[in-house]
């Protein structure tokens, strides 16, 4: 199948055959099925909501402050990053031969943010955990270099 995102209506328009025949060809003859992307839950936990609330209060408090030291604060977090582009469920639907197991790619990285937004993502490259040696020799030097680059551009 050339276009795995093709819909029943598109097949009907191009071949001028009924939906019943299209269904029979796809499911019985080709043993194809529709495969949908999985979605990550949108709702936040109580702790995550509390953190967002604290962040919003701090943003209000310090964003228009005369205290410029706030601009030198950076924060980081180790996170899983999923390798797919967000799209609607309909856009992500594909026809696949039966049985097909979908493979999800993910990676782990450390993200750093400053008052002006994203600074750098440092991939963990096959690491499962972060230790102090890795932080001081690889992770932080990359972050500091990126901060220096950003400061030079301002």
TrEMBL record:
Recorded superkingdom: Eukaryota
Any one Gene Ontology molecular-function term assigned to this protein's record: nucleic acid binding
InterPro entries: RNaseH_sf (IPR036397), Transposase-MT_Hybrid (IPR052709)
Signal peptide: none
Name of the protein in its database record: Mariner Mos1 transposase
Protein species of origin: Eumeta variegata (Bagworm moth)
């Amino acid at each position: 199948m050339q276009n795995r995102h093709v819909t029943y209506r598109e097949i009907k328009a191009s071949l001028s055959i009924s939906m019943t025949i299209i269904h029979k060809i796809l499911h019985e003859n080709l043993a194809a099925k529709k495969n949908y992307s999985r979605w990550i839950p949108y709702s936040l936990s109580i702790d995550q909501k509390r953190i967002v609330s604290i962040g919003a209060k701090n943003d209000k408090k310090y964003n228009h402050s005369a205290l410029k030291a706030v601009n030198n604060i950076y924060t980081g977090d180790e996170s899983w990053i999923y390798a797919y582009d967000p799209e609607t469920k309909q856009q992500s639907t594909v026809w696949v031969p039966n049985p097909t197991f979908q493979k999800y790619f993910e990676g782990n990285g450390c993200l750093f943010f400053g008052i002006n937004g994203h600074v750098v993502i440092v991939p963990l490259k096959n690491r499962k955990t972060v230790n102090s040696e890795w932080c001081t020799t690889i992770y932080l030097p990359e972050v500091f270099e990126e901060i220096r680059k950003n400061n030079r551009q301002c």
